[in-house]
Structure formats: C-alpha cells, structure tokens
Amino acid sequence: MAPLNGYSTFKHFLVSSPSEHVAHVETNRPNKLNAFFEAMWVELGQIFAKLSHDPEVRAVVFSAVGERAFTAGLDVLAAGQQGLPGQDSSQGDEARRATQLRRYIVDFQNSISQIEKCEKPVICVLHGISLGLAIDMSSCADIRICSKDTRFAVKEVDIGLAADIGTLSRLPKVVSSFSWVKDVCLTARDFGAAEALAVGFVSQVHETKAKAVEAAIGMATLIASKSPVAVQGTKELLNHARDNSVADSLRYTSVWNSAMVQSQDFKAAVQSGIKKTKPRFEKL
C-alpha cells in the first residue's frame, strides 16, 4: 500500500491508498489494544474531515493495526490521569462545571461523527476486541464487516455511565431489533460475529482479519470506480431518508437530483452502457 499524500503528519493513524481513489485509515496503537485517548479522537475527526473533501478519495476503509483488537474502547487509565472537565469542585458551581463537561462531550461526539459526515462511503472492518467506542465509531460507518473472532460489547454501563458518543442514538437505526439493542446496552454483555450478522449490525463475516480487510478494499475499489456524483449523492440521500419521513425524503431527493442529473457523469454512464465500455469519471 502506498501512503496517501497529505496525511503523513498524523501521529496515531496510518493513512494509505491500497487502490485508485481508495483510502485506508488504520488506528495505530496495537500495544494498547488500540484504546483511544483525547489526542486520538481529535486526530480521527481531522482525518475524516480531510478525506471528505479530498478529490483523490472516493471510498474509505477504516480498520486497526494488530491482530488482537479493533479497539478496547476508551483508555480508562489515560482518562483517569488526565481527568475530566468539571471534576474539580474548586472551579465554579455545578452549572459551570456541567457546562465544561458538556462541551467536552460534544467535542468528542463531533470528532467521532466525522466518520458519518464524511461525504465518501466508509467501510469499517472490525476484528478481535471491539468494545465501547468500537460500537460508536462503527455505527457511524456506512458498511460494517468483521472477522469471525470479533468480540463486541456496549460496555459503558459497566463503567457507570450511559454511552454518550453515539451508540444509543445510532445503533437503534442500524439493526433490526430494538429489543436486542436494549439487551446489549443494558447488560453490557459480549456478543459475537454471528449474532452481529443475524441482527444486521454487520453485513459480512470473514474467517480472518486479513480476509475481512481484503474484502473491504475490494468493495471500496468497486465503489470508487463508479460516478462520485452518484455515490456521494446516494449516501447523502440514504442518510436523509433514515432520519426523515418518506415525503420529506422524496422532496429532498427531487431538489438534490434536479442539480445532480445535469452532471456529465450521467451521460458518461449511459453511453458506456450502450457501448459496453468502462466509463471514467472526473474528480469531485
């Protein structure tokens, strides 16, 4: 894999290009089970915001370095040493301390939400230990696949809080059973790849991490070969449909496509179908 130009300054992630117009983002802290601390999630948000507007990138694969873990979640030791805003009772009254903590949580949420906000489709590959923040991040992705050894859990109730970075908002919209969502979120129990596939949390399960990453890169390469106008529009419209009524979604689609069908991509795709040739699309 070749490094992706413009991403070498990031400290905690590797960003490469395994095929044309595909980016591969890898969390790179395997000696700590890829557990996250503040500098990492800030950097993650910056990477996905940059990828969103990078004309060289049309699809993204998100995985992690190492064989043991996609991520063990939040680095509790690092968080304990750093402390949380608003914990110091000498700094103002409860409302002011709560305001500091709320802003901190919102900043954390916004960093992770950049995965969902990325204009390019994001395929998340999970493996091994995939706890807590793993669910927050992967729920932001457009497509999730995993290896058969993946061990998932929504762990937050076990550390005395309700998950606050996105799982409770997104997971009910991702899977087929609200009862199952409450089951795993209230108990913090582990669940495996087969169960994740059965409820629709992942769409593919592979024998190994390597095979899962290979499948994700193949899928991303296929997506990247298509019109970026069509692909990015499809992601935008699907996400809008998820969060709005059918009538509102149809109205939004009509406005969106009134501009986008005027693209040269539409004409190129139609002509390639007629001529049985492979179309090439301009950068977006």
Write down the CATH class of the largest domain.
Alpha Beta
Query: At the third CATH level, what is the topology name of the largest domain?
Result: 2-enoyl-CoA Hydratase, Chain A, domain 1
Based on the structure given, which CATH architecture of the largest domain is correct?
Alpha-Beta Complex
Low-confidence regions:
none
Number of domains: 2
| Contiguous helical run count | 11
User: Measured on Cα atoms, how large is the radius of gyration?
Assistant: 20 Å
Largest pleated sheet: 7 strands, mixed
Helix content: 40-55%
Assign an overall shape.
globular
Strand order of the main beta sheet, please? 1-2-3-4-6-8-11
Give the structural class. alpha/beta
What is the element string, with H for helices and E for strands? Answer: EEEHEEHHEEHEEHHEHEHHHH
Question: CA-to-CA gap between the ends?
Answer: 23 Å
Extended strand count: 11
Give me the CATH superfamily of the largest domain. 2-enoyl-CoA Hydratase, Chain A, domain 1
Mean pLDDT: 93
Strand content: 15-25%
Report on the structure:
The chain has 11 helices and 11 strands. It has helices at residues 38-52, 76-82, 94-117, 133-140, 167-174, 178-187, 193-199, 209-224, 228-243, 246-260, 264-275, and strands at 2-3, 13-19, 22-27, 59-64, 69-71, 122-126, 129-131, 143-147, 151-153, 191-192, 204-206. The strands form 2 sheets. A 7-stranded mixed β-sheet has the order 1-2-3-4-6-8-11, with helices on both faces. Strands 5-7-9-10 form a 4-stranded mixed β-sheet. α1 crosses α3 and α4 (133-140) crosses α5 (167-174). The longest helix is centred in the middle third of the chain and has 24 residues, at 94-117. It is globular, with a radius of gyration of 20 Å.
